[in-house]
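User: Structure with nicotinamide-adenine-dinucleotide, tokens only please.
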Amino acid sequence: MEKRIFRFSAASTEIHFGSGISHLRKIADPKFTVLITDENVYHAHTRRFRGWNTIVLKAGEAYKVQATVDAVVETLIEMEADRKTILVGVGGGVITDITGYVASVYMRGLRFGFIPTSILAMVDAAVGGKNGIDVGEYKNMVGTIRQPAFILYDMTVLNSLPQVEWENGFAEIIKHACIKDAAMFNALEANTLKYYRSKRRAIEELVQRNVLIKAKVVQKDEFEKGDRRLLNFGHTLGHALETQYELLHGQAISIGMTFACHLSAKQCGFTQNQRVVNVLEKYNLPAYASFNKQKVFDILKMDKKRERKEMNYVLLEKIGKGMVKTISMNDLQKKLLLW
Ligand SMILES: NC(=O)c1ccc[n+]([C@@H]2O[C@H](COP(=O)([O-])OP(=O)(O)OC[C@H]3O[C@@H](n4cnc5c(N)ncnc54)[C@H](O)[C@@H]3O)[C@@H](O)[C@H]2O)c1
Ligand SMILES: [Zn+2]
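Assistant:
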């Protein structure tokens, strides 16, 4: 087992690799701890929850809403949870987001930690301290930035993760490789999803590498003024597509990454588009799709990263080196409509 401590502006996070629920007993007293999970994770791993107070929520993004937060708060009150209580989110990104949010507001803040169980939560949602809920069609509209006290990594939970969720999570891994880590990109090119699914050590190392990439980016820029924006690679178009079409997040950002590569070629001489497309397709992610470009542009215009007539867009200088460039909305519209 390996422990790393990341210090952020207001708190530190202990990250334990190669551990799991059994190790949780060393960090959190079951008497004062409440686990929050969803039905899928609970049913696949019921035995691991034995001896812990557990709140089991319905699974899915549709439940990442205030009504669920209210229900969790009411249950915590019934359980007589107080300021000494520790909340631990055991699940995918929906569960880590809800847990972090409830822990931030219940009695003005409890200690909390995560045991992420999806690839996406392991490499992305659990790391960085953003947590929030959706309001109507607006994703992550309400939330806080608050770092978890600890994150425990247990790769054995992945045994029950469906194939499509593996693919979904690998989109964020490919994103990290594109913006920060050319060597990891080469490894992804050389290997396959099947390889990572079957080799515990390989996926453990890959996850660890991704956690470090995200944690370091966030550490440098917790409140998203500079480097953290790189993590939005593929997400500007991706988010717009997600609101209009039935796509998984990973699929939407894959198309977004391909378009960002295309823009990078036009704006800053990026020449490695085909390698990015090949890797996305190798991991069963869509690189292209036909969609209503004008309609999607109209959504994209509303993006948080837009400043009047310009938008900050994450582009690649080369594989492993992302950068933020401003592009005029007119230019962006032209390039998207012609893509
Ligand atoms: N806070 C952040 O910085 C951040 C970053 C990225 C994403 N997110 C959020 O994360 C969410 C997406 O995360 P996700 O893809 O993990 O979604 P999710 O939590 O809905 O999990 C996906 C599906 O996999 C199931 N699952 C998870 N682990 C499993 C396991 N080990 N075995 C069997 N089934 C399992 C879940 O029940 C669910 O059905 C979104 O709400 C997104 O907004 C947050
Ligand atoms: Zn994402």
